Amino acid sequence: MRALITDPAAPGGLRLGETPDPVPAPDEALVRVTATSLNHGEASLARQGAPAGAVLGWDAAGVVVRPAGDGSSPPAGTPVITLGMAGAWAEQRAVHTGMMGTVPEGADPGAISTIPVAGLSALRALRRLGPVLGRRVLITGATGGVGRYAVQLARLAGAHVIASTGDPAAHGDTLRALGADEVLAGPENVDEPVHGVLDMVGGHHLVAAYDRLAPGGTLVAVGRVTGEGESFPYPMLSGDRGHDRSIVSFYLPGESGLGPDLTWLAAKVAAGVLTPQIAWRGPLDKAAEAIDALLGRRLHGKAVLDIA
Ligand SMILES: NC(=O)c1ccc[n+]([C@@H]2O[C@H](COP(=O)([O-])OP(=O)(O)OC[C@H]3O[C@@H](n4cnc5c(N)ncnc54)[C@H](OP(=O)(O)O)[C@@H]3O)[C@@H](O)[C@H]2O)c1
């Protein structure tokens, strides 16, 4: 099959080439991939140290070609949404049936392919905050793939949504249209305490966001795009300005029971309740161009690669 293969000698570290077809385990279905989307993490991996000859890619929309041998997958011909730790940047992938959801007939595969990592991370991280109806929720890195789903889902859940971006002038209208009540240039500009934070940025953004948490509030540390460490100045972790404030780490591959959430998110995107926020779309062999833009902070939202 054709796939995007890591190759340190190729421009951008990737080349389109031939690789053996995947061989599914009994609890995996074989899926023909029709679209995949890029995420910050795998884009960084493609640029910084994936082994040569690997087929990367976490998110894919497609159609079941051969159902799982143990009977746990939908039948052949079913449109599906899939998540895996590799193998999505290819014409076919083998997918564990617990990392697969079904998709309404006729849904755009490109739109569906934006969901797995970004949509699931936003959904599962938001749930860590508990009920958010009528509560203030801060989302950092709000213009990114995870952030845009987080803003929409927090709004859907009834939160007062505060979106943080490095450039509110450029992205304010878009974020408000997605459901943000306020758009700010960084957590340090939040004026009143918040019940919860979904932090996609890390470093000093995480520290400033923690400082804005109300007593009993939770910050979910989802991402670290800055690559910075965190230093909490004394007495930020001491008692008098707020207590019982929590920082919870988050790791999507450690989550279980993802299939029903994939199906739910796919239905919401297909119905137009959630928008996929596709900022770039092209063929598989143009992936390096999209990766450059994503890592260079010039592409905000999701990049989709169509696979013929
Ligand atoms: N823990 C997990 O399981 C998990 C799951 C999914 C994602 N993640 C992580 O979550 C993070 C976000 O993922 P994503 O796919 O949404 O990434 P993304 O699409 O690249 O979005 C990240 C956003 O952060 C902002 N940003 C980028 N570089 C920055 C910098 N140096 N300083 C401050 N802000 C910066 C940008 O917004 P502005 O330019 O508008 O400021 C950008 O839109 C990544 O670190 C990713 O690896 C973790």
From TrEMBL:
Report domain Enoyl reductase (ER) positions.
Answer: 9-305
Q: What is this protein called?
A: Zinc-binding dehydrogenase
Record InterPro entries: ADH-like_N (IPR013154), ER (IPR020843), GroES-like_sf (IPR011032), NAD(P)-bd_dom_sf (IPR036291), Zn-ADH-like_protein (IPR051397)
**Superkingdom of source:** Bacteria
Record region (Disordered) = 1-24
Pfam families tied to this protein: ADH_N (PF08240), ADH_zinc_N_2 (PF13602)
